[in-house]
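Interim report, section 4.2 (structural modelling).
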Amino acid sequence: MKQFAALLRKDNQPVRYLVVDDSVFARKNLIKMIEMFGGEVAGEAGDGLTAIAEFNRIKPDIVLMDITMPQMEGIEAVERIVRQHGDARIVMVSSVGYQENILAALQKGAKHFVQKPVKPEVLYEILRYVLSDDPNAVNAPVALAGEHHS
Amino acid sequence: MSRPPEDRNNELRALFFESANELLQSLNEAGLELEARPADEEVIRRVRRCVHTLKGDSAACGFHKLSELAHELEDVLTPQIAQSRMGDLAEVVLAAADSFAAMLAAYQRRLEPPAMEELHSMIRKMLEVPASLEAVAPAEAQLPARFAWTEYEQLMISEAVHRGESVYNIALRIDPNSLMRAAAFQLIRNVLHGSGTVIALRPEDNLAAATVEIVEAALASTQSVEKLSQRCRIPSIVSDVRIEHAATADSAEHELLGDLLEAQAAKVVAGATEPAENGVASKAANAGSAATTVAESTLRVDATRIDAVMNLVGELIIGKSMLNRSLTEFDKRHSHDPVRAKLADAMAFQARILDELHKCVLKIRMVPVEQLFRRFPRVVRDVAKQCGKDVALEVSGQNTDLDKGILDSLAEPLMHLVRNAVDHGIEAADERLVAGKPARGTVYLNAYHQGTQVVIEVRDDGHGIDLAALRARAVEKGVIKPDEAQRISEQDTLNLVFESGLSTASEITEVSGRGIGMDVVRTVMDRLKGTVQVSSQRGRGTSFQLRAPLTLASIQTLLFRVGGRLFAVPLSSVVEITRIAHQEIHQVDKREVLRLRDQILTLVRLEHLSKLRSIETQPAKKKSFVIVIGAAEKRFGLLVDTLVGEEELVIKALPTEIVSSDLVSGASILGDGTVVLILNVPAILSRLSRATPLGAIA
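Predicted structure of the assembly:
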């Protein structure tokens, strides 16, 4: 298998991920890749509602979010998360047929999207790009997390 | 105020066709320039702007075939292709202009536009990059970006630059492997918005992005080029990035300012050549022509609305002279009344404003003949090409103003004359060389004001009209009898060209054999109450002069009485007024002449010319007034009984049924209801020269 240089946060800690997908298999697949990139899976969710709760609890650096899920669709989850956390980095994971939904998610504040079946090298580049957005933002989740708890 | 949407649609359609035709005209002009300077990037940009606007407009009107074709054409309009193909690109542009015109015509008649296969293949051929180019082409050629921002966007850019922001032109190629282009575009949009202020973006919406490969944006940002470039390289979305500084403050402003200056200069040029009449300002005007066209498109008003205003102003002028007369009367009765001065002041003020108003309205209706002339370079080129001749067109006096209505009527006869000049007038190159002339023939177009007329000249340096052949043909067609042909004068023979069915062309060509004969030229000129004159010298060339009046115009005139009737002559043609004693009048050659400062002046008595019966018999006076009238280089003296004064008259053109004499060009009504006849100076002059041998008119 191809080797990837570890993707790390500015403070050299592993990047923390929240993986949201109703398919356990898809989640496992993504988690395997995240581990290849030197990341840490901080949480998992099988629907939008749980995803929001998990986001608030663990304050991940990156969310990988499926579009179609029971209870609450990915788009709505994106909208609610971004409304509370403007700097949340959410990458949509979806099949090609859902262009409309991806468009909507992007308009709601998702940072990027990746097509299923996810190829590790593609996801790696996308994650690297999303993580590099604003130099200040890389440390932000940590600071925010502290604020939130106080 | 809401109108039915259909009404509004029709208006939009009309507006589209009008502006599309203007665009086509500009495209033709730019195409011709491209032919002359194939590698000039500025010209290519101009062509592209035309095509781009046409594309956008036609898409907005739902004319998709046209818009698609324009889009295809846009792709080949790059300096690289122009350089590698040299002259070919101009050919494509001109062919495209024709195709667009054909499609527009079809749309206008609500027909399905013809498929332009030929043009499609021409464009495709241009896109086949020659092997040599690929090696030479720099990296950026792989990402052809146009950055064709609208004027508004350019303004925004220059304002942002002015505020000290850095503005970048960014071009991104959406990864060809991307299956979700709309989403990709949305993401690009997000990234751009996250990196600064997006001033302009192409395409403008997600829908259009589905078919687009390259995204262009103008972005004001505080980030460095490196950082931006990094942000723009969105993995799996963007495959190629090009970032460059948008026009810096200097150049952007300079461009805008330059446009303004150019427009100003054009105005100055127009103003300067107007009084100079036959100005040779063609070169300067050429430079300003682009600016004039810009000014043209500022406001569109239905001509009938302007006519309505014009008529009202005419009535106001008559009202003014009524008031003036009343004031004079009041003056006589109450010369010491202090109200009088107040009235006079108010009158003077009102008169001044009215004068301004009148001038303004006149100006609105007047358009430079440039509007008409600019279509001829293309006509000459095409006709010359069809006949295999080399013909240049020289244009002068294009800033001469002319009533829009007249201008439009002149289009057809002028088109005919120009085509004729190229097709029949100019000889083939070898024939010209034998005759000792340059191989390249020239057709001259000139316009100037002369008194109350505008003269448009079409001249060529070809072989002239073959009088003998013309006579023979006239006899053959039964226009004149054989014995008449023996006696007919040279000028009268030349005038035969205006008879219908007469053509000396040995063959009917595609170019001129279009069923429009020279008789149409004369018919139109008659309708305009104008004239057409032809002169020709064998071996030297032919010249046609179209003269049209400036109707609806009001003019400053000199009023005078002859035999108790009131007449007027345009003040502009009055050279001087003198008073002479009867013994100063001499008889020469059955004509009365006057010696005025070493010059012999033919004297004209209106009553003789027009068999006018005197309605009052004037007691013979010892002294009479002579109005010296001049037109061109000719002068004559008009003997009049009394001078009445200067008056501004609104000319009401008279229908031909009412006026049997061409000596009167129009009539007007004075404030007191008196009718004044306005003399037609050129007609009197030509009457004189016909009746007298040359030399009698000094």
